[in-house]
């Protein structure tokens, strides 16, 4: 989906922005799990490879419109074996995220997460929950996000977040 003016030949998509980030940090192989509007990605595959200097492997998720992101990960499980930077296809972030993730590798770290601790999420945005033995997603109807006290500062450096509340399974 373009993020620029619709119909413009040079319109940039979220995929373009992500591939540009990956190319800037030196990644050369990219697996893309495609489902919704996958034909558009297949049509642009060769041009994207040339533009960003990456080799693309397209992986089909034929249940993309009925199942969630976890199933997309399942579809791409073979590509995850050697380590990955996972980027959602519907979010935009600066290249500093990839740079920070790559710089944090080492010392036996198996999983490194980038978290946005600044953006306020609306009630209908993606959430997850976990316990020591289980992680799952929570639908908006089964979970109420924690509310910040009215006195909480909006400054990222001084923001005090209330402890999370998790739904009971």
Overall pLDDT: 74
The class by helix and strand makeup works out as alpha+beta
Radius of gyration: 18 Å
The largest sheet has its strands arranged as 1-2
- Name the poorly predicted regions: 135-169
What proportion of the residues form beta strands (DSSP E)? 5-15%
Could you spell the SSE succession in H and E letters? HEHEHHEE
**Range of helix content:** 10-25%
- Helix count equals 4
Question: Which of globular, elongated, flat, extended, rod-shaped describes the shape?
Answer: globular
Note the gap between the termini.
Answer: 36 Å
Short description:
The chain is an alpha+beta fold and 169 residues long. Helix content is 24%, strand content 12%.
Give the SSE map:
Elements: H1 14-24, E1 29-34, H2 38-52, E2 55-60, H3 69-75, H4 96-103, E3 128-131, E4 134-137
Describe this entry's structure for a reader.
There is one protein chain. By secondary structure, this protein is α+β, with helices and mostly antiparallel strands. Helices cover 24% and strands 12% of the residues. The protein has 4 helices and 4 strands; from the N terminus they run αβαβααββ. It starts with 13 loop residues before the first helix and ends in a 32-residue tail after the last strand.
Keywords:
single chain, 169 residues, alpha+beta, two-stranded parallel ribbon, two-stranded antiparallel ribbon, 4 helices
